[in-house]
Amino acid sequence: MDFAGAYSWPNLRYLLEGFLVTLEVAALAILLSFVIAIIVAIIRYTKIPVLSQLLFVWVEMIRNLPLLLIIFFVYFALRDVGIKLGVFSAAVVGLTIFESAMISEVVRSGLMSVDKGQIEAARASGLTYGQALRYIILPQALRRMIPPIVSQFISLLKDTSLAIIIALPELMHNGQVIYNTNYSYVIPILLLIALLYFVVNFSLSLIARRLEHSR
Amino acid sequence: MLQTIFEILSEYRTEYISGLITTLKVSFISLIASLALGTMLAIFCISPFRILVIIGRCYVEFIRNTPLLIQVFFFFFGLPSLGIQIGAFTAGTLGLTVYTAAFISEAIRAGIHSISKGQMEAARASGLTYIQAMRYVILPQAFRIVIPPLGNQFINLVKNSSILGVIAGMDLMYHADIVASNTLNVFDTYILVGFFYLTITVPLSILVNWLERRLKHA
Fold first, then answer.
1. What ipTM did this prediction achieve?
2. Transmembrane segments in this chain: where (chain A) (predicted)?
């Protein structure tokens, strides 16, 4: 183990560049999958015919597939049918497909946890169904969902490391490039990468815990 | 498209089946090992000994907040760099076990917490030692509550075992790579891979949902 050599300035800078890519991919995928998840959950909650059944099949299928397979598929297999995505977009699309399905289930169970009587009361007091959903049900559901959604975000951040199979220059990939040059760097580099992930994710989970208790 | 999928399946079924068997084998061994490790960690976390609690919490928090890929790479690249030779299958199984144990430990801990404190006190008052009370009163009840979340962990384990594909671990993902390089048809080859995963995970999901509903009404 050569800690001093592994933590040389060029190596650290290269790792940091990878970490920025990791954060960019994660942030984009979190944003996209959160928006899509809410739309999917509302369609399934309001039981729009045909569409909600199709989404049920879609969500169950995606949830039961490995994310690694999905990322691989989006990058390599879609090439076969003429959809050529770069590594960055393929990683974002793959993560979004998977996590939006996962988060939609969290949102849906949040929506269902709000008492049905509230929608009836809102409708009786003159709001349309859409208004009742927007102003009464969704705000309450979202507040209850904060802890599971944050833990889903943590999973997403960890899962960006899987983009290593399409050679996205994120943290794990750049780390591998470094320790491939010198075997005595493997453990120091892996430890540093683990620490970086840990700091971000642990802070996120502390925030989630704080939010949970402040209610 | 459907025709080519069937052609690939009939020509390369031995590849797929041997990949499927490795995937199942890794998942199953890791499940048993992580159940043992996870239970031990859960007991650490709720034990009255401060040092055990700290060890348990540190393990769980550190592992849960870092990617599985790091744990697998630690065994696959890290150990050989220290002169300890290890195969892809073993490295993958160890990585999956270390990772899943943290989640199983949390599930079991939540299960134990859901048994009311009075039961432990009653068991202790009626003359059982702490360990006996755990063994005969608390754990059997906790395991019942914990079964659905453990089922979910097993589903995750099957999906996560695909990580063996990254380290050439002979699983479904890895064999698919061989098939794709022969057929040059990545799309249909990997549609089939997805299908094979679904044949394991969908029945498991249905089973877990059914158990969840049953235990809720019990």
1. 0.91
2. 20-43, 55-77, 83-103, 153-173, 185-208
